[in-house]
Design goal:
Number of helices: 24
Shape: elongated
Bound molecules: manganese (II) ion
Radius of gyration: 37 Å
Helix content: 40-55%
Number of strands: 23
Distance between the termini: 72 Å
Strand content: 15-25%
């Protein structure tokens, strides 16, 4: 140390000391590692943060150093350590991501970028039900789980030093920690970090309860510790006698866990049976069970407290045997039994994955852990060098969901491939109904746009707008689908009421019944006879062609209308409706579900001009406009109804087709123009050279077709292209 240099304000050497400590820590574990990049990162970060102070008045740089020390304790790899040092530079200093990429490579840059993005999110939510969404979204947003681990280390140090912040920030940060970060640590199996985060936030969120509990625990501490020491000794002796190699740890349950248990079960501290606990760590699963046997032989187990998380691991894959026994003096205490491996995973969870190991044996030796991780995070691995331990993990923790935001920052979770319409309905059904467009991240997108993680979605609405049937093909959420269907049905129902009412009025006029003179009560009574609750429903039923207006009028005014020869109260059997006649579909303009059939006299075919005629009790007959009968029928103009050929069926089916071709330019062009001519859309297309044959190409594509006929036409058209050797449909 040179003595002639003036010390740097305010804490001379504190930063340097911490860095020296960090190097030492890493050296102790991995003496052969090249620490030059770490030192470079330290210098760059220290320079970038040099004029910044923490709230406590200390130089800012001690924060990234402490974060990195935490990561070093977790034995994280070099990428994570360097990320720890640089994690606040992009957000808070003039250092850019490009510079970091240039100096430390893309992996570090991606991690720093990830941590920066997470820091920018407003995670705090006042609604408890939002918390799970925020957690999921956060996990879904990161490609590399190390981003989360660095973020957790960052949060841990911030929580440890929270005392320096003003009370309202303490509260906000503690709440976020308790709601978001501690559960994430739990989800990732990182028991140690989770425990500390919970205890620290508990202290700020429930200061009085915390103080009371600490006082109480403290008052019994000496006595409890003595008891634990004795029990630990007894357990050790008993297990050694049976030649079971063990390490026994004694502990008092964490304050937050104790608090929760007391609150949940409404009990006092004395009644927390597992306040005192021993942890037995042994070498094999066999010995875990052997140790359990020895314990139960020596002490009386409390019934119902034995839990085998080895046979049935917890969802985060925690494994241990738990039991509670009555120890000396009738005091109960908990015993957890596990192997070293289980212990490490329970404490460190996913972070154990990056743990530095001397003499790594390659992926084979880590198979078990990799399996564990696979189960834990449903990950997708991306190994650039299969011989090397995996350093980059693409994680997709929730492959079925995307997390989107409202402009106000509320998280809306949706299924994959959900569209802005789903989003709109998720906000409110009125927003969904009146949705006319959407902006995603400030840009207008089509309504069929597939939303992605982190998209900020703004819905454009127009009063009075109604959903169209096409929407049913665009939505992914049952909520949106049901609302749209409901609305379309309601619209059609209203139309049917209108038609039915007109039909009844016209028929009444024709038969000389004065509807105006019929009382409401009579109408309702007759409606009831037809199984309709309200007059409106009777009108609708008439509109749908279920009953004949004449019959109804006969009931309303029996003196005026002659009874038909055969009285039929039950709905007439459905005449041939849509769908019965092959691909011929007729629909009443703007109305669905009316009974529609083609008149036998003229049997109109698709494309012909048609006209509908409301029959008495048989639904709507569709005639060709030129049909001679129409001219006669149409004297009752009011029973005429507009009909049209339904648009060609719009539903399409994706089909995967593999085309084997000569490898020549222009092939793709021809292929796509053939598909275009057949009006078949291409969903995806991938061309590759045919490795088996060498001279050919394979085009693997998914096309949309309406039916088998169209697929056959498409396949035939493709086969006609010169150079196409084979076309096959695959799954
Ligand atoms: Mn930070």
């Amino acid at each position: 140390m040179s003595t002639d240099v003036a010390p740097v304000v305010p804490a001379p050497g504190l930063v340097e000391q911490l860095y020296a400590e960090l190097e030492q820590k890493i050296r102790a574990l991995r003496p052969k590692d090249d620490l030059a990049p770490l030192e470079k990162a330290y210098r760059m970060a220290a320079e970038a943060h040099k004029d910044q102070l923490r709230q406590s008045g200390e130089p800012y740089m001690i924060h990234p150093l402490h974060v990195t020390l935490i990561l070093a304790d977790m034995q994280m790899d070099m990428v994570a350590l360097i990320t720890g040092l640089l994690h606040d530079t992009v957000e808070d200093t003039s250092l850019s991501l490009e510079q970091i990429k240039k100096e430390f490579g893309p992996e570090v840059a991606a991690c720093v970028d990830g941590v920066t993005k997470l820091s920018k999110l407003k995670l705090y939510s006042r609604e408890e039900r939002q918390a799970e969404n925020v957690r999921k979204m956060l996990l879904a947003m990161v490609d590399d789980i190390r981003v989360i681990i660095v973020k957790l280390a960052d949060r841990l140090h911030n929580m440890r030093t929270l005392g320096a912040l003003p009370p309202e920030r303490q509260l906000r940060i503690s709440q976020e920690t308790a709601e978001i970060y501690a559960p994430i640590a739990h989800r990732l199996g990182m028991g140690k970090v989770r425990g500390e985060l919970e205890d620290l936030s508990f202290r700020y969120l429930e200061p009085e309860a915390w103080a009371d509990l600490m006082r109480e625990i403290e008052s019994q501490r000496v006595q409890n510790e003595e008891y634990l020491t004795k029990m630990r000794h007894d357990v050790e002796i008993n297990l050694r006698r049976e030649n079971i190699p063990v390490r026994v740890e004694a502990r008092i349950k964490r304050p937050y866990s104790v608090f929760q248990k007391m609150k949940r079960q409404k009990i006092s501290l004395d009644q927390v049976y597992d306040l005192l606990a021993l942890r037995i760590v042994t070498d094999s699963v066999k010995n875990c069970y052997a140790a359990l046997g020895v314990i139960h032989n020596e002490w009386h187990p409390i019934p119902g407290r034995i839990k085998d998380f080895i046979a049935i691991p917890r969802p985060n894959l925690y494994q241990s045997l738990h039991t509670s026994v009555i120890g000396a003096g009738g005091r109960s205490f908990e015993i957890q039994i596990r192997t070293e491996e289980m212990h490490r995973l329970a404490e460190e969870g996913i972070a154990a994955h990056w743990k530095y190991k001397e003499g790594r044996k390659g992926p084979g030796a880590d198979d078990q852990r990799i399996n564990w991780l696979r189960q834990l995070v449903e990950w997708q691995q991306e190994m650039r060098d299969p011989g090397e331990f995996i350093s980059t993990l693409k994680v997709d923790l929730y492959p079925e969901e995307v997390y989107t935001f409202t402009p106000m920052g509320k998280v809306i979770p949706l299924p994959r491939e959900a569209t802005p319409i789903d989003f709109a309905y998720a906000i409110h059904s009125d927003v969904g109904t009146t949705c006319v467009g959407a902006k995603v991240n400030g840009r207008i997108v089509p309504l069929k746009y597939n939303l992605k993680n982190g998209d900020v979605v703004e819905i454009l609405t127009q009063t009075g707008h109604l959903p169209s049937k096409d929407w049913l093909g665009m939505v992914k959420t049952p909520r949106a689908r049901n609302k749209i269907k409901h609305l379309i049905n309601a619209t059609e129902h209203a139309k049917a009421i209108e038609i039915g009412q007109k039909y009844l009025e016209r028929e009444a006029r024709r038969l000389g019944v004065q509807l105006a003179k019929i009382t409401k009560a009579d109408l309702e009574r007759v409606a009831g006879e037809y199984g309709c609750g309200k007059t409106e429903d009777l009108h609708a039923a008439l509109g749908y062609g279920k009953f004949s207006a004449r019959q109804v009028l006969q009931k309303l005014a029996p003196d005026t209308v002659e009874a038909p020869a055969v009285e039929a109260l039950k709905p007439t059997p459905a005449p041939s409706g849509p769908g019965d006649s092959g691909d011929l579909v007729i629909k009443v303009k703007g109305v669905d579900d009316l009974l529609v059939y083609r008149a036998k006299c003229c049997n109109p075919i698709r494309g012909e001009g048609i006209v509908g005629y409301v029959t008495r009790g048989k639904g709507i007959a569709v005639h060709s406009k030129n049909c001679a009968n129409v001219q006669n029928l149409m004297y009752e103009v009011e029973r005429k109804i507009d009909v049209e050929w339904a648009r060609a069926v719009t539903e399409t089916f994706p089909v995967r087709v593999v085309v084997h071709t000569d490898d020549r330019p222009g092939m793709l062009n021809q292929l796509t123009s053939v598909l275009f001519a057949e009006q078949s859309n291409i969903r995806s297309l991938e061309a590759s050279s045919d490795d088996k044959r060498g001279d050919g190409a394979i085009i693997d594509m998914t096309v949309e077709v309406r039916d088998k006929k169209q697929l056959e036409r498409v396949a035939a058209a493709i086969r006609r292209i010169s150079g196409v050797r084979d076309v096959e449909r695959t799954e």
